[in-house]
From TrEMBL:
It comes from the Bacteria. InterPro entries: HTH_MarR-typ, MarR/SlyA-like, WH-like_DNA-bd_sf, WH_DNA-bd_sf. Residues 12-142 form the HTH marR-type domain. The lineage of its organism: Bacteria, Bacillati, Actinomycetota, Actinomycetes, Pseudonocardiales. Pfam families: MarR. Its main location: cytoplasm. GO terms for molecular function: DNA-binding transcription factor activity. It comes from Actinomycetospora cinnamomea. It is found in: Cytoplasm. One of its GO terms (biological process) is response to stress. PROSITE patterns: HTH_MARR_2. This is TrmB family transcriptional regulator /MarR family transcriptional regulator.
Length: 156
């Protein structure tokens, strides 16, 4: 009895699995480095946005991280409980919540960026190759989101 091993039905041929496997591996590497700082990977990427842009609204943070507010709120609550961020309503519009780093959150910037440098070194890729890979992955994600939006709206 023979088994169909065509390229489209093997696990190794699946882009989704290769991306999943790489994502798990890089996330594990980040977890090892961030744990001593008392940070999860999700908290780290939220702080990255704040370090880059300063105080931002919850809406902007959701858009930057591609998360909904139901996912982001508990993450920020844990950061706030540890004194790393503050959330406050804007006086000019009570409906808008702004998120900002505290000095404690700001103090994590350099140690967290050292983790990032270590993880990048562990990939064994040259900086130009990393930049190209990142760009290609971002373009892929954008195309897939656009395709998903087209399906939802019925546009082709």
């Amino acid at each position: 009895m023979t088994t169909d091993t065509s390229a489209c039905t093997t696990l190794d041929a699946q882009l989704c699995f290769a991306l999943h496997d790489a994502s798990r591996a890089i996330a594990a590497s980040y977890r090892r480095g961030l744990a001593p700082l008392g940070l999860t990977y999700s908290q780290y990427v939220a702080l990255l946005v704040l370090w880059e842009h300063g105080p931002v609204t919850m809406g902007r943070l959701c858009r930057e991280l591609h998360l909904d507010s139901g996912t982001l709120s508990p993450l920020l609550q844990r950061l706030e409980e540890r004194g790393r961020v503050v959330r406050r309503r804007r006086p000019e519009d009570e409906r808008t919540v702004e998120v900002a780093c505290t000095p404690e959150g700001e103090a994590l910037r350099e140690p967290a960026l050292a983790v990032q440098r270590r993880v990048q070194a562990e990939t064994g890729l040259e900086p130009s190759d990393l930049a190209r890979l990142r760009s290609e992955l971002q373009a892929l994600a954008d195309r897939l989101r656009t395709a998903d939006d087209s399906i939802v709206t019925g546009e082709a």
